[in-house]
Write a structure and sequence with these properties.
By secondary structure, the chain is an alpha+beta fold. It contains four helices and seven strands. A five-stranded antiparallel sheet has the order 5-2-1-6-7. A hairpin with a 5-residue loop joins strand 3 (76-78) and strand 4. The radius of gyration is 19 Å and the shape is globular.
Length: 186
């Protein structure tokens, strides 16, 4: 039997039954300086920091990328250590708003803003719109801090161009939250 590259395209008639896992997925680095709107789904949890052992909170979201940033879309973006890596979020100018479902945020500057925007009793989440940014950490040797900036009027005009995409994403979270409450009632 001959070994096959399982990460390549499968050349059999499995009808999509087996799809190779990707080694990477979109991250905050792909979103730096890009305009986004973030809708928390209500799913949250804690993990322990590898660096400090302290717990930190994460929130699952639907994050919608609304532009390519002030410099335009870049095919490679700086990663954690500044190394260039492929940009895994396609160009909005070329392909329209990019909807990232189940995107988890754990950066303190963002999670602090998401906590009060969790879905309410009606299942409807709040939103956070702005540009993703980072800056050097005050604590020497620690990773840069990540946050979201206040949108400008031009940013809000861009966001409003994608109102239908944003409304559909928010409605999907609302319906899922309502269905979860309904199933918990039994």
């Amino acid at each position: 039997m001959t070994d096959q590259n399982v990460n390549g395209a499968v050349q059999d008639d499995d009808d999509g039954l087996f799809e190779a896992a990707a080694e990477t997925f979109p991250s905050k680095f792909d979103l730096r300086n890009r305009l986004v709107v973030i809708y928390p789904t209500g799913k949250t949890g804690e993990r322990k920091s590898e660096a400090t052992g302290k717990p930190y909170t994460w929130y699952e979201t639907t994050t919608i990328v609304l532009d390519d940033g002030p410099e335009g879309w870049q095919d490679r973006v700086p990663g954690d250590a500044g190394e260039l890596q492929p940009n895994l979020v396609p160009s909005v100018a070329d392909e329209g708003a990019q909807v990232l479902k189940n995107f988890q945020w754990s950066a303190g500057g963002i999670t602090a803003r998401l906590a009060p925007r969790l879905p309410g009793k009606d299942g409807k989440p709040g939103s956070q719109v702005g540009r993703i940014n980072s800056r050097p950490n005050k604590n020497r040797g620690m990773a840069p801090s990540w946050s979201i900036s206040t949108p400008t009027e031009a940013d809000m005009a861009t966001a409003r161009q994608y109102a239908d995409v944003c409304r559909a994403a928010r409605d999907e979270i609302t319906k899922a939250s309502q269905a979860a409450v309904d199933s918990d009632a039994f």
